[in-house]
From TrEMBL:
Keyword terms: Cell cycle, Cell division, Chromosome, Chromosome partition, Coiled coil, Nucleus
Record's protein name: Cohesin subunit SA
Gene Ontology biological process terms from the UniProt entry: cell division; chromosome segregation; sister chromatid cohesion
Family indicated by similarity: Belongs to the SCC3 family.
Localization terms from the record: Nucleus; Chromosome; Chromosome, Centromere
Primary role: Component of cohesin complex, a complex required for the cohesion of sister chromatids after DNA replication. The cohesin complex apparently forms a large proteinaceous ring within which sister chromatids can be trapped. At anaphase, the complex is cleaved and dissociates from chromatin, allowing sister chromatids to segregate.
Chief localisation class: nucleus
Compositional bias annotation for Pro residues: 1000-1013
Example of a GO cellular component annotation carried by this entry: chromosome, centromeric region
Species the sequence originates in: Pygocentrus nattereri
């Protein structure tokens, strides 16, 4: 393994050097004669500790541009950074200038800056600074902390605090950058700042701990950058020295060699000091806070260590540091796991670093693979993206089983997860494709390079055994493989052209799958939105997307206007293939038939449709023909007359044939011939299918069907299917007549009626918003019940009836306006009633089947956008009370309304926990993961939130299921007596590693002998081995929990083969600067990152799917 070498000395800041003052008289040494020379000597060009600038001896007045009053300076640095209007470099330069005048006063300003940034109202005075140790100062500041509010600048909301964090971090980075050549080496400023931040980071007060940890981590990042620059300078100096020394003696410049040696020595001393500073921060802050009880603090630590490893890989990218990221992959909170994955992505993206990640990859690969099923969607997406980067490094790292666990996610209902999985699938399946030679003529059709890739896509689709989800597969791969999926010319060639010599032809099943995929790609290109169940609906397209959409529609029309007739001719007897092919004209740009002079192909298409109508009696095929005629018969296009004539001729023949057959059939009396009955039924089926989409009133079908039904009533021996289709045809006749009547009435009374309804709704809303909302949801429920009684529980959610109710719900939601605060309670009550209605009627077939009204959640999702962010979480918790264990595990189509509704509650939420495959794990964490904020200036809103939550959660407890029980909140925002904290009430019980994962630990160091107080020294020496009290376990393992959807398998022993000793930071030996230049991504030998014990010989091809 890769071990970090030990430093020969510990980082210990001197106590009795020139940086300490025993009395106020030390300030009167203008020449710095009392300065002690040696290791702690002041560097050349710096002022001695007691040296003052002009005006330093004055009393009250202005110092450093700030007003002084009673010896205490108003903390203005915090205000400047908070406003964020000044250039940060000028702010830092002003502080440096004041530090050069009087560094104690400037340092006091900086200390108060950190105290103020933590939200503390107290101020450290000069007297406290000189005579109190850090622990005493922090205790004093804790007493002055405002306990009425748990908010502090890093967590406050509002415009003025929006950019505070970025300004705060920028200030620290610029401060170190501007001081990197002198001040940070004076063993005074950095000594004080690091000691203060280390003490604050161990505080029981969350605000102190959070703010100081962020500051310390950003300080460490800035120091890492300084160390990297020093290393580069040492490389340059060493190279110059070697070049000079290798010259001939006569040409060698000894003075230059002396200077280079002196420079190298100085750089080495500086680097040693930077190492000590980084060791102090790493051991004093990071090793304690990366396991903090607060998730935000843990996330900060993991994010920054990722930056260090990426920025200075020679020093930090080894297993001694990677282990912290590996352990934290098991963190209980999604935001921390997310930071781990993003940190690793930055490392795996650079392929030249993969050799250093070899052991880590072999140890934690299985964990990363399992995180693709994380209950947090964002975590699952980033886990898949990380595996895609791992895939780039070598095909041998991930086994076929690992890959298959990602493949099935292309069918996930959550689009970001599916898209990430689609990119992984595309990289894996098509990473070995040949590169086409630009000098050779481009091959088209089945001879093109895409032909095999399209076949591979078909094979994958068939092997996945989810045939009805072709639209999901296409949508998943659309962003990364649209060029392949839009190669319709190749698809047409694979279907129509004869196989090449030696090429295996597609089977009938493969041709069916290819046609289905081809239809889905055309629909996606024409509509530019995901399929039903993914996304919240249509979005506004950009100008570029609109242009792409128009170009795609033009190209698909030009191709399929020519190719569709021969395709229909070839597969005319295959009902499934014909049904899919007949949907293609719905997405055409029909004007191209005229502008492209393709009228003869239109005639050919109409002939083929006519022949298909005559050949088939299957309802799906006939309805597809009817819809195609409906799409082509648009009066806005010049082809309308041509298509209308063809349609009329076909219907004339069908109606004449039906009337003729009906007359003979009725004359046969009580003993009709079976062949005659079949002819009547088949003709009636064709007419009924057309009457669904076309107004056939001029053919007077009512009279014929009335005769047929009347005869059946009189004789009582009419075949059942004939009666059914006759009734259906008569139903369409009546509907078309009613539509005409309604259209006339609407035109006449629409304006008056609409005004009355709008005014009525407005008045009712003014009278009682909640009752108005209840009325709206009740009307939607009544319409839904009527639809269920008409269509039955197995209705199609794409039916016009259901879509009409959804559209009405959308319009209702618009009436609530944009002010969510005013309509908050009404919208919440509307969701409450809607959820109760959806689960009101259980399915008589058992719990494994969806409730009869579950589809109502699809309608209810139209109102989700009107919920406030915090209310979405409450509604989601309320929804889960109605869900059983089995419901949460279901992913079939019939459960999509529940999935979609949960997705709509997640969108814009702040910490919803949803599952990629199963939402069950979110229940235990939805409440537990939230930490309540104490009441702040936003008290009104907070009280509203609390009351609303109580109303929802105090509902009849009989509705709760065992898996929905909430866990208590735990906080750490005020001082707490650790002795009174019971083990079962502390974070330790939640986050402790399993017993088999824990390593023997050294004895706790809490009871070390107390140090002798030093009242005259304001700075306490750093003890970076000191552990936190009351916030941490005594070991160094992370806060973990198994957060996967499946509890199968235990977390493996994370500690085997890893170095558990906290190491000293030791920067690597000098290298040539060229080796430190920015690494460019490049492919390399995959065998270099995996040893034989973990290397796999699986190569993915068609055989990989034969499982």
């Amino acid at each position: 393994m890769i071990a970090a070498p030990e430093l020969q000395t510990d980082f210990h800041y001197p106590q009795d050097t020139d940086t300490r003052f025993s009395s106020d008289t030390d300030f009167d040494d203008p020449d710095g004669r009392s300065a002690v020379q040696g290791k702690g000597k002041v560097k050349k060009g710096k002022k001695a500790p007691g040296e003052k600038g002009k005006g330093a001896g004055k009393g009250a007045g202005r110092l450093n541009g700030h007003h002084q009053e009673n010896g205490m300076e108003n903390v203005m640095l915090f205000e400047v950074v908070k406003l964020g209007k000044s250039a940060m470099q000028s702010v830092v330069d002003d502080w440096i200038e004041s530090y050069k005048h009087d560094r104690d006063t400037a340092l006091l300003d900086l200390i108060n800056f950190f105290i103020q940034c933590s939200g503390c109202k107290g101020v450290v005075s000069g007297e406290m600074f000189r005579h109190m140790q850090n622990s005493e100062i922090i205790r004093k500041m804790t007493e002055e902390f405002d306990e009425d509010s748990g908010d502090y600048p890093l967590t406050m909301a509002g415009p003025q605090w929006k950019k505070f964090k970025s300004s705060f971090c920028e200030f620290i980075g610029v401060l170190v950058r501007q001081c990197q050549y002198s001040i940070i080496y004076d063993e005074y400023m950095m000594d004080t700042v690091i000691s203060l931040l280390t003490g604050l980071s161990d505080s029981q007060v969350r605000a102190f701990r959070h703010t100081s940890t962020l500051a310390a981590m950003k300080l460490m990042t800035a120091l890492v950058n300084v160390a990297l620059n020093l290393s580069i300078n040492m490389d340059n100096t060493q190279r110059q020295y070697e070049a000079e020394r290798n010259k001939m003696i006569g040409k060698r410049a000894n003075d230059r060699l002396e200077l280079l040696l002196q420079k190298r020595k100085e750089l080495q001393e500086n680097q040693d000091e930077i190492e000590n500073m980084m060791n102090a921060i790493f051991k004093g802050v990071f090793v304690h806070r990366y396991r903090d009880a607060i998730a935000e603090i843990r996330a900060i630590c993991i994010e920054e260590i990722g930056v260090w490893m990426k920025m200075y890989s020679d020093a930090f990218l080894n297993d001694s540091y990677l282990k912290y990221v590996g352990w934290t992959l098991h963190d209980k909170q999604g935001e921390v796991r997310l930071k781990c994955l993003t940190a690793l992505q930055g490392l795996y993206y650079n392929r030249e670093l993969n050799a250093k990640l070899e052991l880590f990859t072999s140890r934690f690969k299985d964990r990363i693979v399992s995180m693709t099923l994380d209950k947090e969607y964002d975590v699952a997406v980033q886990a898949i993206k990380l595996l895609t980067l791992v895939l780039h490094s070598s095909d041998e790292v991930l086994t076929a089983e690992d890959c298959e666990s990602v493949y099935h996610l292309v069918y996930s209902a959550h689009r970001p997860v599916a898209v990430a999985a689609g990119e992984f699938l595309f990289k894996k399946l098509f990473s070995h494709r040949d590169i086409e030679d630009d000098s050779m003529p481009k091959r088209r059709g089945r001879q093109s390079l895409n032909a095999n890739l399209i076949k591979t896509t078909v094979f994958f689709f068939l092997e996945s055994e989810l045939h009805e989800h072709a639209a999901y597969l296409v949508d998943s791969m659309w962003d990364c493989a649209s060029e392949l999926l839009k190669d319709w010319e190749c698809m047409i060639s694979l279907l129509l052209d004869e196989p090449l010599p030696g090429e295996e032809a597609l089977t009938d099943r493969q041709e069916t799958a290819l046609i289905e995929i081809m239809l889905c790609t055309i629909r996606q290109a024409a509509e530019c939105h995901p399929p039903v169940g993914r996304g919240t609906g249509k979005r506004v397209l950009t100008a570029k997307e609109k242009k792409t959409q128009l170009d795609d529609r033009t190209r698909m029309t030009e191709l399929f206007a020519v190719a569709l007739p021969p395709l229909l001719a070839k597969y005319s007897v295959d009902a499934e293939k014909v049904t899919n092919l007949l949907q293609l004209p719905q997405f055409f740009d029909l004007e191209i038939y005229t502008t492209g002079r393709l009228e003869k192909h239109l005639e050919s298409l109409l002939r083929q449709i006519r022949e298909i109508v005559e050949k088939h009696t299957d309802t799906d095929v006939l309805e597809a023909c009817s819809k195609t005629y409906h799409a082509l018969c648009s009066e806005e296009f010049t082809i309308f007359n041509r298509v209308d004539i063809a349609r009329s001729q076909l219907l004339d023949e069908l109606v004449d044939k039906f009337n003729r057959l009906l007359e003979d059939f009725l004359q046969e009396g009580e003993d009709p011939d079976e062949d005659d009955a079949y002819q009547v039924l088949s003709t009636l089926k064709r007419i009924t299918a057309f009457h669904n989409a076309h107004d056939l009133s001029k053919w007077d079908l009512f009279t014929s069907n009335y005769k047929l039904l009347n005869t059946g009533i009189e004789n009582g021996d009419m075949p059942e299917q004939i009666v059914i289709h006759a009734l259906q045809c008569t139903h369409y006749v009546i509907l078309w007549h009613l539509a005409k009547v309604s259209e006339g009435s609407c035109k006449k009374y629409y304006n008056d009626y609409g005004d009355i309804i709008k005014e009525t709704m407005s008045k009712t809303r003014q009278i009682d918003k909640i009752q108005c909302a209840k009325t709206l949801i009740l009307s939607l429920q009544q319409l839904f019940n009527e639809m269920l009684s008409d269509l039955g529980p197995g209705f199609d959610r794409s039916s016009s009836a259901f879509c009409g109710i959804k559209e009405l719900a959308r319009r209702f939601s618009l009436t609530f306006g944009l002010d969510q605060l005013k309509t908050r309670e009404a919208i919440a009550m509307l969701h409450k009633d809607g959820i109760e209605f959806a689960f009101k009627e259980p399915n008589p077939q058992g719990e494994g089947y969806p409730p009869l009204n579950l589809a109502f959640l699809d309608i209810l999702s139209e109102f989700s956008s009107k919920l406030m962010r915090q209310d979405k979480r409450t509604v989601h918790m309320y929804l889960e009370r109605f869900m059983t264990f089995q419901m949460a595990l279901q992913r079939e189509d019939c459960w999509l309304p529940l999935i979609s509704y949960r997705n709509s509650l997640q969108a814009g939420g702040d910490d919803d926990t949803m599952s990629v495959v199963s939402g069950i794990s979110s229940r235990g964490s939805t409440i537990r993961n939230k930490k309540p904020k104490p009441v702040t200036g936003k008290r009104k809103l907070s009280e509203g939130t609390t009351s609303l939550t109580i109303v929802w959660l105090n509902r009849d407890q009989s509705m709760q299921t065992p898996v929905m029980m909430p866990s208590p909140h735990l906080t750490s925002t005020v001082m707490r007596d650790t002795k009174r904290l019971r083990p079962e009430d502390s974070y330790m019980g939640v986050y402790t590693m399993p017993p088999e994962q824990q390593q023997p630990q050294p004895p706790p160091q809490h009871h070390a002998p107390p140090q002798t107080p030093q009242p005259h020294h304001h700075q306490t020496p750093l003890d970076y081995n000191r552990r936190g009290s009351g916030l941490m376990e005594d070991d160094e393992e992370p806060i973990v929990e198994d957060v996967m959807m499946s509890s199968e398998g235990r977390i493996e022993d994370l500690n085997e083969g890893m170095d558990f000793d906290t190491m000293d930071i030791d920067l690597p030996a000098s290298k040539n600067r060229r080796e430190r230049s920015e690494l460019k991504p490049d492919f390399f030998d995959p065998a270099s990152i995996m040893d034989e014990s973990v290397r796999t010989t699986h190569f993915l091809g068609y055989d990989a799917f034969q499982r």
